[in-house]
User: Fold this.
Amino acid sequence: MGDTSVDRIKIVVVDDDPAFLDRIETGLTHHSDSFSIQMATSFEQAIPVIKDTPADCVLSTNTLDSTTGLELLRTVRTHNLDIPFFLLTRADSTDLETESIRAGVTEYLHIDTKTLQYSVLSNRIQHAVETYQAEKRITELERRYELATRASTDAFFTYNVSTETLQLETGFEEFGYHQTQVTTGLEWWLERVHPDDRETIRDQTDAMLACDPAIFETLEDDHGYVSEQCRWQRQDGSYIDCLWRGRLVLEGNTPTVMVGAITDISERKDREQVLTALNNVAVDLDTYETVEGICKRSIDASKELLQFDLSVIDIEEDGMLSKAAISEDIPEVHAITMPVDEGIAGKTYRTGDSILVDDISAHPEAKPEGPYHSAISIPIGSHGVFQAVSEDPNAFDKTDLELGELLISHTTSALDRLEREQQLRHQNNRLEEFTRIVSHDLRNPLNVAEGHLQLAQENYDSHSLTEAEQALSRMKSIVDETLTLARNGQLVDKLTDVCLDELSRECWHTVDTEAATLEIQTEKPLRCDPSRVRHILENLFRNAIEHGGSAVTVRVGEVTTADKSGFYVEDTGEGLPNDQREMFFESGYTGSDGTGFGLTIVQQIADAHGWTVRVTERTSGGARFEFSGVTWASSA
Assistant:
């Protein structure tokens, strides 16, 4: 809105009598605390003070030692300084008054220095400076306004508050209006605001004209404009989405002019709607389970949202780009298969860069099929290429390319997901086959061996048989651990909410804990596969007791740092050797006579959840395993 009060007014008082200067300073500051007085006793001293301060007002007597106040006035005006200038004279002279007016004096005052009315002089200075500053603001605003209107396609208007006249400055021709002045004032403009938006805009303009501080506190932007979106009516009766901005120019505390601008934002609104729709397409694509389905949905979206009537998706296979989906308006005869080292599509696939083609016939890579003259070509990651074509040259611009790239980024993500899921299914099938072999083909011979061993032990008492029994028992443990490792290596695809404290206590009771102690320091529910996390906890509990002794204390708690969120399992044992920590999670590593698969299983399960596991040491000793990247349940 602009300032509603004048800052301290800088006044330069000029006279060759220091006593008079002191009286002027005392008198003016006594009547107003908004004055800042600087004094000069000569013409030569006054000029730099006036220019460098810079002064808001000059108060000078006419008689100076080396010159006159009139000459000072002329010099000030010669320097293009149009600040208020008061010329005080002790002698009444019609000629001097006339010359002063010609030179541009603000006020010519015949005074008696002994009976000078400082209250009157103070009020006149205050009014002159406020008027000057208001006119200066208006002049500057008009200058900026002229520059802005010359360079802008917006529609500008000014509303004169005192005459209630609306002046259409520029840009309204775009809306179908050609008049320049409207006698019905602001009402003419408000009547063309959509009825559903009119009350809001009317309330805002009324508040502005009433200088209501609340309207400026809540709606004023960084450039001093009140702004609001609304629909505005063109001459033909249609409405378009606009951004209305209004600014009030004040003279003192009185509004004089409202400057308004209307910006057509219909294209921006359309773009926002397209972007929202494209995001919905991304969600939709995540539901498709075939390459053909994803590509067909992408082609449909390019037509519905981007108006690409002729488009195609090629998927790479064995060095060839073959059609996976094609617009119904493109004849099949033009849907040819091409090598990845040929054509615009091939270059797009090889380089991974999008291409905007204004004239296909002039493009060095083009091998045109059909009556097409322009195109856009967008890579679909490592999968293939999307192309849209037109029978007209220069049919696509950078905006088309950007929106096309956004759509195809969603297509790429969907195809990446499908590829990952297929790899996961393949990996899980291989693991299933592996576990079947281990479970069936190894267990049967072990069971046979155990049976024969028992028969032998019934007839013979031999140390060798005892060692054979221990070896068979170890083999069964290795088979069990290998099966667990294989099954838990599969990626987790179903997560449930599990209370970590309850799961920890359940696992504690399944382990031979002897005199060990469990302390739980978290109650947060965890998103995980509970059957697999059970293996983590049981392995770590068992490991802590084996290495820390029967009196060890095991703690489970939450990790909360600036860069990590997760949980930990730690014990009060002797800790783990620093020089061996890199090998802890390797298959077969063991500090005792175990299988060496325990910590490998812990890491495999963490990886399957997408977690990171780190082994460290407690401050006071003992092993500590930290799991980060976990997902806590929403109720946490």
Summary: The radius of gyration is 43 Å. Confidence is low (pLDDT under 50) at residues 1-6, 149-153, 219-223, 586-596. The domain at 9-137 is CATH 3.40.50.2300 (Rossmann fold). The CA atoms of residues 222 and 261 lie 16 Å apart.
